Amino acid sequence: MNQSKLIHRKKFIAANQSGKLAFKLLFLFFTLFLTSCSPWTRGGQISRTDFINFHAGESLGQTFTARYRGLSGIQLFLKPGEGSQGTLLFSVHPGSQDAQVIVSANLDVGDVQTPDYYRFLFEPQSSSYNQDYYFTIEFQGEGYLQVGTAAGSSYLDGALYHNHRPLDLQTNFLLVYDPVQTALGVIALIFTWIWYLLVSGFLFALPGWALLSTFWRGHKFIHWFEKLALSAGLSLAFYPIFFLWTNLIGLRLGYLYAWLPPSFAMLWLLWKVFTTIREKGFTFSQFNQFRFKITKPDWRSLSTHLPSLSLLIVLVMVFAVRFWVIRSLDVPMWGDSYQHTMIAQLLVDNRGLFSSWEPYAEMQSFTYHFGFHSLVAVFHWITRLPMHQATLWTGQILNGLAVFSLYPLANRLGGNRWAGVAAVLVAGLLVSFPMYYVNWGRYTQLAGQAILPVAIYFMWKAIELKPRNWGLISVSWICVAGLALTHYRVLIFLVIFIAPLFLFYFRRKNFIAIVSNTTIVGVGAGLLFLPWFLRVFQGYILAILGHQLTTSPGSVSEGTHLSYILSNLTTYLPTWVWILLPISIIWGLWKKKSAVSVIGVWWFLIFIAANPSLLGLPGEDAIGNFTVFIAAYIPTGLIVGAFIGWLLDEILVKNVSRRTEFLSLLTLVLLFFAGLWGTFQRISDFQPSHHSLATRADIRAFQWISENTPTDALFLVNNFVAYGGNAIVGSDGGWWIPLLTHRQTVLPPLNYGSERGPYANYHNWITQLGKDIEREGHLHPTLLAEYQQRGITHVFVGQQQGQVNNFSAVLDPDELLDHPSFYPIYNQDRVWIFEFNP
Q1: How far apart are CA 618 and CA 64, in angstroms?
Q2: Using an 8 Å Cβ cutoff, are 340 and 442 in contact?
Q3: Dihedral, CA of residue 607, residue 613, residue 618 and residue 621, to nearest 10
Q4: Fewer beta carbons within 10 angstroms: which end of the chain, N or C?
Q5: Distance between CA atoms of residues 72 and 59, nearest Å
Q6: Using CA atoms, how far apart are residues 394 and 617, in angstroms rounded to an integer?
Q7: Is-cis flag, bond preceding 838, omega within 30?
Q8: Distance between CA atoms of 488 and 498, rounded to whole angstroms?
Q9: Beta bridge partner(s), residue 78
Q10: DSSP assignment string, 38-103
Q11: Which of left, alpha, beta for 656 (phi over 0: left; psi -120 to 50: alpha)?
Q12: Cβ–Cβ under 8 Å, residues 739 and 769
């Protein structure tokens, strides 16, 4: 055996021994964790602003939801009272209306010596994950204790009960979990996430992969991670086109929209693989040699494979943090999520595109961009998740894909794969956006931005190649048309990108060919989009756009005004990124990285388009600063990623030395810990207490509504005037009533402003009620008469009690209780339902 083989063999043996040692250490860690007897305290209601007196003979209770498997105890903050003695009888029930006792425990009152948390332990509940419970404490003895409490708004999933009657308070309690059961529950969750990712690969990767393999021979010369990202963007763009053109010829395929494209793609790809094997005569002995090559480690090529390994680790973190935060969220947050869920439900109900919004709303046209909703529909058809859950999970999958789609374009900018890794790390974990989108349900813009970098990548390549590449032009048509059907404003971003491209290529000999190719891409994509563009005239979107194009700076809302945005720059990107971004741009100019310059000029032009007043022009509200700045992760990830990629490429690739292997491993470790730090930072971006309209308590009330109210019931719900007085929007779970109970409310989805109603004055009629309530209050005599005229039969006050993003009048349960026209028929937790009978 020669010297090099001997050294290689020693390294291989050492690696195996190191791997065995690592496995043993990992096994020991999990063994210690799983055999630990220390319960794990997590969740509950940790605020304490006051106390409630708890006298002998009384009972206190609290509804709550366990967010992990293995609930094994509850800690309650107690304060001793003078002369108190006896026993606290603790029990857990399935709900506040269910007398069944699941588990029970006791505590001697004499043990309560100081203000502190006191623990009631019981057998671990293996099925507690996402389950509702109600614990009660009965005081048998003498005297009193004090129990820590906080305001009713401090906890979303329940309320404090005194003698089995809910109060607008929450107890100060912590939930205790068994670590073994909790670990098993997390493992089960991970398998669920893997299933969703497999479905996503089937739906959102296979069709694009097949299209790339068919139309673009250049796919053979790019890394498979790059091809995967391009395939995802292409697949996302394909589905709305498929929905549109099948509808145009009278086909409504229903669940076949989900099954046909990926199934045909998979069969096509398998056929191509089989054909290749047959043509090249791939034998079993060759397979053994190939298998040996891919299993035999080559430590000298570590730096070659390190970018792929780093990207894989970063992507795991990106998707894991996005899945983790929503694991216990029942309904997607904010007002946008409501309309998105309804549109997706209507697509499923109608087996394709629709015009009428019935039975959920009265609008009679549909002209809104529907790309995201088509993706939700196909995801629902495969997973069979309820539509509100399908909307939530599809949104988070796209949140990850919006970051991953930067990878190919960043590679082009930086000239190496480290640039793509850095772009994904920065955009996915080190800055708040697009992670923060989950709070707003801003999924349509997110879906558009998942397609946008891929559309730019293909269009850029297609227009600069000579001779003309019709395959690249074809996939560009699909990407651009799909983007147009997914988000109109993000399409404007793409159109603006053409300007810096022309500036960049202006002095080149092939400029005429580039203009010609761009025109061909635009015309082809326009023809694919044309049927929907003609349909847009049925609604009021173009009229709204015309109004926005004439808007002056003084007419836009404060939150989108440039001065407000500039005073809150760190909301959109952290300070260190604002510092690193200009450094990266200067580096790009110094290194004559023209692609970096193109991206910088592109986003500057988008900024100008959002602020035409800087040029003395109207149209301040057509794009909006808010839309631009929450998408700033795109140029930031690309430009900063290219800069970091250049640094890593200089260190790890171009300056090869004996220290290269050490530096490669050090880079991997640093990237891992940077990603881990970013992962924990992104968890804090998730803010359900401020953004959730419908909570678990509302969902329980929705079930009661479905079972106990007439089908023609009409609900008055909390709302407020928004968008400069042009619309009213919901401010608690009542907005979701039509979709989740099939009962009507006075508040349609926000699209009522851009769609055609059942009569000419529909938009004004809906909006006027909100304006009257804001001016007069809910109980003014003229409004009571208006309620009767409109046919309102019930009033719903949600768990959030109208406080989500609302600073105007709300429905006050105490005022309604004191008024003779309102009779309470439901009160659990903080949710109230009244009958209206004037």
Answers
A1: 52
A2: no
A3: 50
A4: N
A5: 21
A6: 39
A7: no
A8: 16
A9: 116, 147
A10: --EEEEEE----EEEEEETT-EEEEEEEE-SS-EEEEEEEEEE-TT-EEEEEEEEESSTT----SE
A11: beta
A12: no
Calpha distance 579→342 (Å, rounded): 42
How far is residue 802 from each of residues 65, 694, 813, measured CA to CA in Å?
22, 11, 11
pLDDT digit string (tens) for 669-700?
Answer: 899 999 999 999 999 999 999 999 999 999 99
Cα separation, 188 vs 382, whole angstroms: 20
SS3 call for 374: helix
Asked, as a colleague might, if the bond just before 434 is cis with ω within 30 of 0, I would say yes
CB 443 within 8 A of CB 372: yes
Do 205 and 232 form a contact (C-beta atoms < 8 A)? Answer: yes
At residue 16, the pLDDT reads: 47
Q: Which two tokens stand for residue 755?
A: 């769609």
- pTM confidence score: 0.92
Please give the structure tokens belonging to residue 334.
């904010």
Amino acid residing at 648:
L
- The predicted-structure confidence for 180-232, as pLDDT tens digits, reads as follows 999 999 999 999 999 999 999 999 999 999 999 999 877 677 888 999 999 99
3-class DSSP assignment, residue 354: coil
Phi, psi dihedral angles at 831 (to 5 degrees): -95, 135
Task: Look up residue 99 and give its amino acid.
Answer: A
pLDDT value of position 283 = 57
Token digits of residue 642: 């290219």
pLDDT digits (tens, 9 = 90+) for 155-185: 999 999 999 999 999 999 999 999 999 999 9
Q: How far apart (Å, rounded) are the C-alpha atoms in residues 314 and 677?
A: 12
Tokens linked to 434: 């697009």
Q: Which residue has the tokens 């640093």?
A: 670
Q: How far apart are the C-alpha atoms of 2 and 701, rounded to whole Å?
A: 77
